[in-house]
Amino acid sequence: MTPRQVTSGRTDTETDDGPAGDHRPTRIGGRIGAIVSGRWSAWIVLLVAAVFSAAVVLGGGQAYESTDPTAALPDTAESVRVAELQRQLPSGQLNPALVVYSRGGQPLTADDAAAIAADAAAFAAEATGGQVSPPVYSPDRAAALLAVPLPADLDTDTTIATVERLRATAADGLPAGATAQVSGGAGFTADIASSFDGANFRLLLVTVVVVALLLIVTYRSPWLWLVPLAVVGTANVVTNGLIAMLSRAIELPIDPSTTGIVDVLVFGAGTNYALLLIARYREELRRVDDRREAMRRSLSSAGPAIAASATTVCLSLLTLLTAVLGNDRAIGVAGAVGLAVAATYGLVVLPAALSVCGRGLFWPFVPRAGQADPARSGIWARVGGLVARRPRAVLAGSLAVLALLALGLSDARLGLSRTEQFRVQAESIDGLDTLARHFPAGSADPTSVIGNAGSEQPLLTAVQDTPGVASARVAERTADLVAIDVVLEAEPDSTASFDTIRDLRERVDDVPDADALVGGTVASNLDTRDAAIRDLKVVVPLVLVVVLLVLIVLLRSLVAPLVLVTTVVATYFAALGAGNFLFTNVLDYAALDTSVPLLAFLFLVALGVDYNIFLATRAREEAFTLGTRKGMLTSLAVTGGVITSAGILLAAVFAVLGVLPLVTLTELGIIVGLGVLLDTLLVRTLLVPAIAVTVGRRFWWPSALARAKTD
């Protein structure tokens, strides 16, 4: 008996929908295909989609945003609790702009001092309370600092405008050779917001151009590429509208970087789904005359794999709801919405559009019934022949490449300081660098210790006695609280500064009845780093469980899912190692950002397993008539071209994140791009087929395919 007879009890020539060996259609997929490809129903689908899309776009509006710098941290974080106490103090209602004056390392002149005094008087018009403290000069008199208090609750646009006026005032009348740089919390807020001004539009534009070019190269048609690009572009616009409405409804802050990531996800995944569906549609057009029947068969066969892929990614993204960092939760929710929309439009709107357009859409390479499928004898068939001849050598070589790349993690460092986060020049960062050269490292942004007013003196003594503290002074008092400004010796966000924060927290905690807490920017970044590590430990196992369960249900096997998940995890470590080596040795980045390992893992495992889903589901389909060995090699041959195109496209789209100004997004884009290429060109092409050929029918254990008489 053949494997098909074992599982279905039918002959080799009988299925629900057509001849065996062509496909193993699903009833649900066939029914959906009949609806979206019908002569009139396809037009109705397109009309409904157009109305729905227009309604969402018109009602979308702006997403909910937050200006609270600690909004991403959990309420239990010590730096967040300090921020809440600071709001009870006069200074806690302020977000100062620090104006730094210098003369290239030379002492400031009397004319410089006069200009600084004049600026202090002019800045009073912008300052809260109408007063600016006297300038503070560095010990070497080579730099001076003016602190301009601004309201902490200013919206982003007002902060940008205020900082621009401060910069214009400081530059006006400045003596030759002197410089003035506006930094501090307000300066940094203005610069990071301004750096995204138009950046997401550039990201979207470059993404569309990259996708269009790759689709043109893939299809070699003057107009076929327009259909999937239009569908995916509409899905992206709808996604942005839905995310905006959802964020306002549940008060979920969405920042520009989240929007950029979701745009890339929708375009990358949506185009991948389109490539797979169109490839299967073209394959079926070579078998049947009726294009509507071809679309029905395509959805019956490819639809479950696309749906399983989208489900895997959506569920994986939703595991971020267990994260404590608000930015991660926002990416999880927004990304899941985007993938759901992309899959829906890919499985409903795209088939309807293709059915309406007809075969001529593929001109000049129009597929006709009876034509041979060139993929079965193309380059990927020859690659399969190599795997079949020497599977163990291919397996060993592939694992060696992945292990070698993973060695790049040997010197990895986690966490970027504020000055290391920009890829573009920012005056606020330059100002912090100037301050660091002439003042103690932590002067620009002191750490804050807040405790009970009755314990002021012992608390101050404990702070001053802490190793790594350059200076400490009582900054404010109320009837209940005392706030101590602490200047650290170490560079902000360095390992030494984090060690000092930990030591401070231990020492002030030992002061009786002080109930003291340590906060500030460095403490907040330490809490963010600790939260990111916690999220990595919690979310990663959940993602693996989700992906494994989906694969088990889809493939009805235990061995194949374990193999696929293991290979994707190996790809992740290889991509992370290669990326870290590139960042530290070529691009001169200081470290991996705290959020990069988790997001890269999520995207690589969830998106990377897509290609293995496409490969394995087709291999399982072919194995029913050809056996495991030939089924896997046939799957490699017929899916090789489309999966390679999809992988290259997804890698290119993620690389486009480098258009945005943050190192974090550049690192994420490069790591995911490298991982997708590794998964597409090495893991899916060589490693997984080599494993399947080596283990044979046991690859499908415990399903009936594992008990077939042939491999």
From TrEMBL:
Compartments reported by the entry = Cell membrane
What the entry lists under Pfam families is as follows:
MMPL
Coiled-coil segments = none
TM spans (from-to): 40-64, 199-217, 224-246, 258-281, 302-325, 331-354, 393-410, 538-555, 562-583, 595-615, 636-662, 668-693
The UniProt record lists the SSD domain at 223-356, 565-693
The family database entries (PROSITE patterns) matched by this protein are listed as:
SSD
Q: Which PANTHER family match?
A: MEMBRANE PROTEIN MJ1562-RELATED, MEMBRANE PROTEIN YDGH-RELATED
Family recorded in the similarity comment: Belongs to the resistance-nodulation-cell division (RND) (TC 2.A.6) family. MmpL subfamily.
Name of the protein described by the UniProt record = MMPL family transporter
Specify the taxonomic lineage: Bacteria, Bacillati, Actinomycetota, Actinomycetes, Micromonosporales
